[in-house]
Design a protein that fits this description.
This protein is mainly α. The chain has helices spanning 8-20, 57-65, 75-78. The protein has a single domain (2-86), classed as NAD(P)-binding Rossmann-like Domain (Rossmann fold, 3-Layer(aba) Sandwich), CATH 3.40.50.720.
Amino acid sequence: MLATWLSFDDLERLVVASLTAPAVGHSVIYGMSDNATTWWDNTPARHIGYRPRDSSEPFRAEREAHQPRLDPNDPALIYQGGGFVTRGPFD
């Protein structure tokens, strides 16, 4: 989950930016830090003044060292939603 990691400081920045923005309109903004690996493009968050400063990269080596070898062809890894995308309605 390094792609969706959000630090406490960036969460505070996001909340303050969203509450003090002069105009928000309809905005799709993802609550995530400035991570090297992401699922989404969060550049639209700039129009409300959100600029994340933290990143999940300092944790990458430690997390990957404890992770078992994964199959790169596993649909649960390829598609956003993980194992939920490979399960049927009654699994």
